[in-house]
Every structure is written in C-alpha cells, then in structure tokens.
Amino acid sequence: MATADEGMSFLEHLEELRWRLIKSLIAIVVFAIPCGIFWKRIFDILMLHPLRLAQPRPRLIFTAPAEAILLSIKIAVFGGVVIAAPVVFYQIWRFVAPGLYKHEKAVVVPTVIASTVFFMMGLGFSYLVIPYVIQFLARFGEGLMDAMFRTQEYLGFLIKLMLAFGIVFELPVVSFVLTRLGVITPRFLIDNTRYAVVVIFIVAAVLTPPDVVSQAFLAAPLLVLYGISILVSMAVAGRQHG
Questions:
Q1: Quick one: which of 98, 131, 146, 214 has the most CB atoms within 10 Å?
Q2: Phi then psi for 150, rounded to 5 degrees?
Q3: In the 3-class helix/strand/coil scheme, how is the chain assigned residue by residue?
Q4: CA 38 to CA 77: how far, in whole Å?
Q5: Using CB atoms within 10 A of its CB, is residue 213 exposed (0-12), middle (13-18) or buried (19+)?
Q6: Which of 135, 167, 199 is at the close of a domain?
Q7: Are 163 and 175 in a shared domain?
Q8: For residues 211 and 206, what is the distance between their CA atoms, to the nearest angstrom?
Q9: Quick count: other Cβ atoms within 10 Å of Cβ 134?
C-alpha cells in the first residue's frame, strides 16, 4: 500500500522514533516524580490491597539495606508509566501517522483515547483478579510454609501481571486499526480462531509468572477480547463497505 509520506528516509524515521521515545520518557519521568513523593500511599494501594483475601495474610519483607529505596523508585516509575499512558500512546500513533493516508490520520486521536481506555481497563481488571491469584498461591503451601514475600519480587510479580493485562486489553484497538488499514478482515480472524487460541495460551504463559492460575486468569479475558476483536473488525469492515 502506498503511504502518505514515502519521502522520509530510513535515518529520518530513526530520528522521528528517537524523538518520540524521548518525549515518552520525559512524560514518564515528570509523572514519576509525584508518584515517588507519595510512594507509601501507592504502596498501600498497589501492594497491600492484593493481600486482603489471603489468610493468614502474607508478610512483606526486605532482605537488603537499600531495598526499600529501590522499591520506592520502582513504584514511582510504574506510576509514571501508568499516568503517562495517554502521552505514550499518542507518541506511538503519531509515529505511525506519517505513513498513513490523510483520511486514515483522522483515526489517530480516537485511537489514542481508545488505547488509553482499554489499557486502564486491563489494569483495573488485573487489580480485581490479582487478590484471588495471591489467595490461591498463598494457600497452596498452607500448613507447610509461612507466606513471606520479598517486596522486590512481589512488586515485580504485580507489575508484570498488571502490564500484561493492560497490553492484552489493546487487542480490540489493534483489530480496529488493522482492519481500517486493510491488513486484516473479519473472515481472516474467524478462519484463524483455532490458531489464535493456541497463540493466546502461549502469550499468557510468556506474559504471566510461571503458575497456571495467573496464566488462566490472563487467557480467559484474552479469549473474550479476541471475540470482541472479531466483532470490532466486522463493524469496521461493514462501515467501509456500507
């Protein structure tokens, strides 16, 4: 497909990508600063809330002198990434926009909004299901071991799982964009459903920690999102041919 901006050289594309990355990083750093100031409040929301269902309640410990400082930095950066999500998505789609036709560029702003909304929905969904994952994992060795989580490893577990949900919830948005560009069709998605199911479980295994419960909690909404993506693709295709 011919693009709207074929005159850009490879080096110009790299320069454009560099500036988009710089702007995204600046936004993340700016929003990370207040998150770093209020990291203890975020700690309560992010790390203590998922433990509420586990009985007995696991203890959070740190085993290195500077671990609490590193923890506060990681919490600040994660908070910065979440709050800066609209800016990051805008930079991503603006990087793609020069290669689109003029009428296709009109979808950039709605796509940024949809990307942000679905990303936040993914984070919110993960925030609801993670306590049940923690409850299952903490009970698995009940009576044999006491549950004590290292804060760094526990935070890494939470961040990985939450970002995984945030990313996979982008599936309907990706389906919308690719269908709009003519890369995929509803028939293509329907015909390849069996392969998509296999890929979904592989993706769930890669993106989540190595336990079956986390993988199942991610695979289930992914299957639903794939179905929604088919409906989105059908709606876009129908509008284009209507």
A1: 214
A2: -70, 130
A3: CCCCCCCCCHHHHHHHHHHHHHHHHHHHHHHHHHHHHCHHHHHHHHHHHHHCCCCCCCEEECCCCCHHHHHHHHHHHHHHHHHCHHHHHHHHHHHHHHHCCHHHHCCHHHHHHHHHHHHHHHHHHHHHHHHHHHHHHHHHCCCCCCCEEEHHHHHHHHHHHHHHHHHHCCHHHHHHHHHHCCCCCHHHHHHCHHHHHHHHHHHHHHHCCCCHHHHHHHHHHHHHHHHHHHHHHHHHHHHHHC
A4: 12
A5: middle
A6: 167
A7: no
A8: 11
A9: 24
Rounded CA-CA distance 78/84 in Å is 10
pTM for the model stands at 0.81
33-67 residue pLDDT tens: 999 999 999 999 999 988 888 888 888 888 888 88
Number of residues in the chain: 242
One domain for residues 237 and 183? yes
Distance CA 161, CA 172 (A): 19
Task: For 6-35, write each residue's pLDDT tens digit.
Answer: 556 767 778 888 889 999 999 999 999 999
Sequence-ordered list of residues with C-beta below 8 angstroms from that of 190, at least 6 positions apart, any chain: 230
Q: Is residue 128 included in any domain, yes or no?
A: yes
Q: In terms of residue numbers, what domain contains 105?
A: 7-167
Q: Are residues 156 and 174 in the same domain?
A: no
Q: Please state, in angstroms and rounded to a whole number, the distance separating the CA atoms of residues 32 and 34.
A: 6
Looking at the fold, whether 155 and 221 belong to one and the same domain comes out as: no
> Structure tokens of 72?
């506060």
Whether residue 1 is contained in a domain is answered as no
d(CA 113, CA 131): 28
